[in-house]
Write a structure and sequence with these properties.
The complex is a heterodimer of chains A (182) and B (386). By secondary structure, chain A is α+β, with helices and mostly antiparallel strands. Chain A has one domain: Immunoglobulins (Immunoglobulin-like). In chain A, the strands form three sheets. A six-stranded antiparallel sheet of chain A has the order 7-6-5-4-9-12, with helices on one face. The longest helix of chain A is centred in the N-terminal third of the chain and has 20 residues. The termini of chain A are far apart. The model of chain B has no long low-confidence stretch (mean pLDDT 84). Chain B is 65% helix and 11% strand. With 386 residues, chain B is an alpha+beta fold. In chain B, the strands form two sheets. Chain B has a five-stranded mixed sheet, with helices on one face. In chain B, strands 1-3 form a two-stranded antiparallel ribbon.
Chain lengths: 182, 386
């Protein structure tokens, strides 16, 4: 509760200060609607980030260093935490071949693409499947994204990528009933 | 909430705030513009694609070029990030600075104006006669000293006020005792003399005693009546009731009141009719009777007493003028004081009562007098709206 209020106050201060005193636009990341589907044994959760990598990111992605994007998935039944898992998507630009090497944590996929747009679509997406217990009943599924600090090895410099998201962690939630119809 | 006109301190603080924030905003604007230019220049730097096109013949060259490309890419990324970071933090810092400055401004302003407001309120209390007011001695050193001086002053004023009240009470009791003793003694002497004469006659010549018995009893009765009137005067003065105002024609009341006196005294009337006042009728009778009685006491039966009623704008002016002995100028300002009298008979409460009754009915009484020429009492009463 306190964390949520603090977050909202900070977000307001940041938005106001940037709006009033800076030409810096940064990014305002958000999630698309969380798509949750319960199969026979697995629960599949899908969503993707929007407006997360529009400004300043092209140069960061093209730096040649691995740029990770963290996702935190939590499933709760009222106040009880049922699942808390972290996933990481990452991008590394191969300068010699001008291709992006992408790894998605949720489905553990690896691929390469020369297209910046295709890379963005892939790295923004989140998909994972988790085993679930129908006795969990009605659950609240929350997905949060964040950016870690990245160390640029050649320059021996560590930079917090969250500044590009103006320290705002996008979050999306959905309610899902896992009880099987009798 | 009541806002007062800002003082010089407020203006200085406000000016300081505006100048400092203005300077910060200007500085920020310059900084943001420079950052924007660097960012745009960075966007134009595209080295990697050009290097990739270069034909390399040795493995060593390839490794070296890759190394250069990687360093360049990282450097560009870091510069971009650092630029974003600095622009973001500058805006945030500026916002927090302005917020903090405004808060400090409000706090300082409150701290400066609060003690002054306290002093002003306390001074108002003193002005209203509440000398027991005490303000907490807080704030900066000079303010503490000022508050301390104020508290000392209010304590001294309170003490002086208490002493004055005690002295005034004592003086009133002394005056009252003196007047009472004097007024009671006056009728007692003739009573005593009448009784003594009767005793003497009864002892020496009982038959002759019967001859003076009637006279002696008359004297005793008269003096007892005088004592009763004296008691009534004191009683009237002590219990001036709250004015029960009613609307009536003062000319009619004056005429009715003076009817019993017109046979013995020469009273002339000049009364404007069809006028109304809102006044306690009993109080009105007491006022007119007292002034008229004084006029009659000061005049011979042949000297005329003139009563007039006129209108001046929204006010009715009643004047009672005699051609009697008049009042000495040094006594004129004391005639409304309780127990002040130059008459051989009287408690000195009549005119004091008149003054109090006028005040109770929001009327004003004035007096003009010249020794040997007579006196004129004027009562000014607001005319009642019909």
């Amino acid at each position: 509760m306190l964390e949520a209020i603090t977050g909202k106050v900070f977000a307001t201060i940041v938005t106001l200060s940037v709006f009033l005193f800076s030409s810096y636009t940064g990014n305002d990341p958000a999630f698309r609607t969380l798509n949750c589907r319960a199969g026979e044994k697995y629960l599949v959760v899908r969503s993707s980030l929007i407006s997360a990598f529009d400004n300043d990111f092209p140069d960061v992605f093209k730096s040649g260093s691995t740029i990770p994007i963290n996702f935190q998935l939590s499933i709760r039944n009222k106040n009880r935490s049922l699942v808390s898992r972290s996933f990481q998507n990452s991008v590394k630009y191969d300068m010699a071949n001008a291709v992006y090497e992408i790894r998605t944590g949720g489905m553990n996929r690896r691929l390469q693409t020369p297209s910046y747009a295709a890379m963005l679509a892939e790295v923004s997406g989140f998909e994972c499947s988790l085993p679930y217990d129908p006795s969990w009943g009605e659950v609240s599924i929350t997905l949060t994204a964040s950016l870690p600090s990245v160390r640029f090895e050649q320059l021996q410099k560590k930079v917090d990528l969250m500044v590009l998201w103006k320290y705002q962690k996008p979050k999306v939630s959905a309610l899902l009933s896992l009880q099987k119809p009798s | 909430m009541k806002f007062s006109r800002p003082g010089i301190r407020t203006w200085i603080l406000l000016l300081y705030l505006v100048v400092s924030i203005g300077s910060l905003l200007l500085l920020n604007n310059v900084f943001q513009t420079n950052q924007q230019e660097i960012q745009e220049t960075m966007n134009k730097l595209e080295l990697s694609d050009d290097l990739r096109m270069v034909q390399l013949y040795s493995q060593a060259d390839s490794v070296k070029v890759r190394q250069i490309m990687k360093t360049y890419g990282e450097a560009k990324g870091v510069i971009k990030l650092s630029l974003s970071e600095s622009r973001f933090y500058v805006a945030l810092t500026l916002f927090i600075l302005i917020l903090a400055s405004s808060l400090i401004f409000i706090v300082v302003l409150t701290r400066i104006s609060k003690p002054l407001r306290e002093l002003k309120n306390a001074t108002d209390q003193i002005r209203l006669g509440n000398f027991s007011v005490h303000i907490p001695e807080t704030g900066i050193h000079e303010m503490k000293q000022l508050k301390n001086s104020f508290n000392v002053m209010s304590r001294e004023l309170e003490s002086v006020q208490k002493r004055l009240l005690v002295a005034e009470k004592e003086m009133i009791w002394k005056d009252l005792s003196r007047v009472l003793a004097h007024e009671i003694k006056n009728p007692l002497t003739p009573i005593q003399l009448a009784v003594q004469r009767l005793e003497e006659r009864l002892a020496t010549d009982p038959d002759a005693a019967m001859q003076i018995l009637g006279d002696s009893l008359d004297i005793i009765k008269q003096e007892i009546e005088n004592l009763r009137l004296l008691a009534q005067d004191f009683s009237n003065f002590a219990k001036i009731s709250k004015a029960q105002k009613e609307v009536f024609d003062p000319a009619l009341s004056i005429t009715e009141l003076c009817r019993s006196y017109t046979q013995d005294y020469q009273i002339e009337f000049d009364l404007l009719s069809d006028q109304k006042i809102s006044f306690d009728k009993t109080h009105f009778y007491q006022i007119i009777t007292n002034i008229l009685q004084n006029a009659m006491d000061a005049s011979d039966a042949k000297q005329p007493i003139r009563i007039s009623l006129s209108r001046d704008k929204n006010y009715l002016v009643i004047s009672i003028k005699d051609s009697g002995q008049g009042i000495d100028s040094e006594d004129l300002h004391r005639i409304f004081e309780p127990y002040f009298s130059r008459k051989s008979k009287g408690t000195g409460l009549g005119l004091a009562l008149v003054k109090k009754l006028c005040e109770a009915n929001s009327a004003i009484i004035r007096v003009k007098s010249k020794p040997g020429e007579g006196s004129e009492f004027t009562i000014i009463i607001e005319a009642a709206t019909n």
